[in-house]
Every structure is written in structure tokens, then in C-alpha cells.
Amino acid sequence: MTAVNSSTDAHLQISEDAGPSHWLVGLGTFASRWPLGAAGAVIIVLMIGSAVFAPFIAPYDPLETDFAAQFSPPTMAHWLGTDAFGRDLLSRIIYGSRTALLVGFASAFLGATLGAMLGVASAYFGGPIDLVVQRLVDIFLAFPIIILALAVVSILGTGVSNVIMAITVPMIPNCARVVRSSALAVRQMPYVDAARAAGFGYARIIFRHMLPNVMAPYLIMLTAFVGQAILLEASLSFLGLGVAEPTPAWGLMLRGAAVEFAESAPWMAIFPGLAISLGVFAFNLFGDALRDALDPKLRTL
User: Fold this and answer.
1) Helix (H) or strand (E) segment spanning residue 21
2) Predicted local confidence at residue 253, as pLDDT
3) Which of 54, 105, 208, 256 is the most buried (most CB within 10 A)?
4) 51 and 98 in contact (C-beta within 8 Å)?
5) Do residues 176 and 119 touch, judged by C-beta distance below 8 A?
6) How is 99-139 classified by DSSP, letter by letter?
7) CA distance 84 to 125
């Protein structure tokens, strides 16, 4: 009995010691196989860190105006210059990451989750229900995402919550179509038939047996949607249909850098544009790497 206990304790000790190292090895493997995806992940972490610690990182209040420093070029006092109201661009870009990530993560999570549930339910029920759902999905997919977002936000109005809803709606059919294709294969699995034979209701089968088995495409779509949502939020804000002044937002900063300031103060458009491009680029790179890592067909041996 003592030997057995000693063996068990040793096994538990090895398992506990191997836990952190296992994660480190996994991260190292991910970085070596997909260096661009790892670079995107680093940028995402930096964006999240800047959004969380914005009050400690930003050198100025993003809403503070200083008309004596209007259109100031990048200097030691204002590293990225100032805008038409004398507000520090670096501080507004840092605080703008909060708006971008809030809208991006919220709309991507809602769109991907609702789309995944719709896709799995459509695949499970099949027949007329699946036919009707897929035809509705086809109708929504026939319109560009930006057109649907503009239609929704024109109905609901501006504001962060309305922008989130406007971006969520176009993402639902995209995720529903992708997840449905995976759910059709899961529906034919023996454990789903066993759950039906055991008398389980459709809700339990969908949420407990089918949804967990389509998490790979769900996570891939979720990551890809964040970059699209950041770009859509910037587009809507640039058009005047997103968040309103004086909220720091990257698209709104581009709107403030109007054509008349393009030659006299080009930094007003360059730096917010770089922030948008870098954020979208990072999420796209990480999403592509995550797709390759989670999809067995694309995995390199």
C-alpha cells in the first residue's frame, strides 16, 4: 500500500510540475510554427494592456482641450501631435483602443455565438426548418456587411450599444453557414443517436452534445470577426454613424482629420489609420494561425 501511495504521489507531483511547462512548450510550438500568428497575438495582448491600463499610460486626458496647442506636430510634449482642439493624439489613440476592443469583442462574441446556435439548430432539425433558415441566411449574405450595418444603425441610431448591435447582425449568418457545415457531420455521430434513443430533448442534445463539438470553427470565426468588427466600427464612426464626440474612437479621429487638414496636419490621419490597420492586421494573423492550429486538415506534421 505504501508503494502504491508513493507511486501515486510521484505521478501527481510529475503532473503538477508538467502543467506550466506543458503550456510553455505549447506556446513555443505555436510561435515556431506560426510566427506571424504569434506576432499578431503579441500585438493583441499589447492592445488589451493599453486599453486596461489607459489611465496610467496615457500622458494626457483624452478629452482635455488646449487651443494653444492646436495642430501641434509630433514633439516631445505631444509624441503624436494634437488635433484641431489641441487634444493629445497619443492619449486618444490609447483610449480609443477601449472603444475598438469593446465593440470588437462584444459584437464578435454575440454574432459568433448566435450564429453558431442558429447553425447547429438548423443542422439538427434539418428538413423544412433547415431550408427556411438557409434561405434567410442566403438573403443576408447577398448584402455586403457594411450595407447591413449601415441599415441597422440608421434604424437604431448612433451610440456604442447600437453600433454593437449593427455589427452583430451581419455576422450571424456568416457564422451560421460555417458552423452548420460542421454540425451536419456531428449530427450523424453515434453519440447523438444514443442521446436521442435515451430520450433527451433537442435542447440538451444541441447545447451539450453538438455545440461543444463545433468549437473549432466557432473560435476561428470569433477571432476573425473581431478584426472585422474593429474595421466596421471605424467605418461607421468615420461616416458619422458610430460613436459620437468627444468619445475617443479611431474612426472618429479619422473623421476629424478631414480633407482640409490632410496637408497642414497629416499626422491627424496617419496615426489613427496605423492603429486601425495594426489592430485588424493582428487579429487576422492570429485568426489564420488559429485556424491552421485547430483544423486537422491544415495541420502540418
Assistant:
1) helix 2-33
2) 86
3) 256
4) yes
5) yes
6) HHHHHHHHHHHHHHHHHHHHHHHHHHH-HHHHHHHHHHHHH
7) 57
Coil, helix or strand at residue 88: strand
Q: What is the pLDDT of residue 296?
A: 57
We find that the CATH architecture of domain 34-298 is: Orthogonal Bundle (1.10)
What span, in angstroms and rounded, lies between the C-alpha atoms of 256 and 245?
A: 10
- Could you report the per-residue pLDDT of 251-270, keeping only the tens digit for each? 888 876 666 677 778 888 88
0.85 cut: is pTM over it? no
56-82 burial, b at 16+ Cβ within 10 Å, e below that, comes to: eebebebeeeeeebeebeeeeebebbb
The closest of 298, 287, 301, 300 to 38, measured between CA atoms, is 287
pLDDT of residue 10: 43
Task: Report the distance separating Cα 173 and Cα 13, nearest Å.
Answer: 48
Domain residue spans in the chain?
34-298
Q: Which residues contact 194 (CB under 8 A, 6 or more apart)?
A: none
- Print burial letters for 12-27: b (CB count within 10 Å at least 16), e (below 16): eeeeeeeeeeeeeeee
Write down the pLDDT at residue 211.
85
According to the model, what pLDDT value does residue 258 have? 63
What is the secondary structure of 234-300 as a DSSP string?
HHHHHTTSSS-TTS--HHHHHHHS-GGGTTT-THHHHHHHHHHHHHHHHHHHHHHHHHHHH-GGG--
* Predicted local distance difference test score (pLDDT) of residue 158: 81
Q: How does pLDDT run across 105-115, given as a tens digit for each residue?
A: 999 999 999 99
User: Could you check whether the bond before residue 217 is cis, i.e. omega within 30 degrees of 0?
Assistant: no
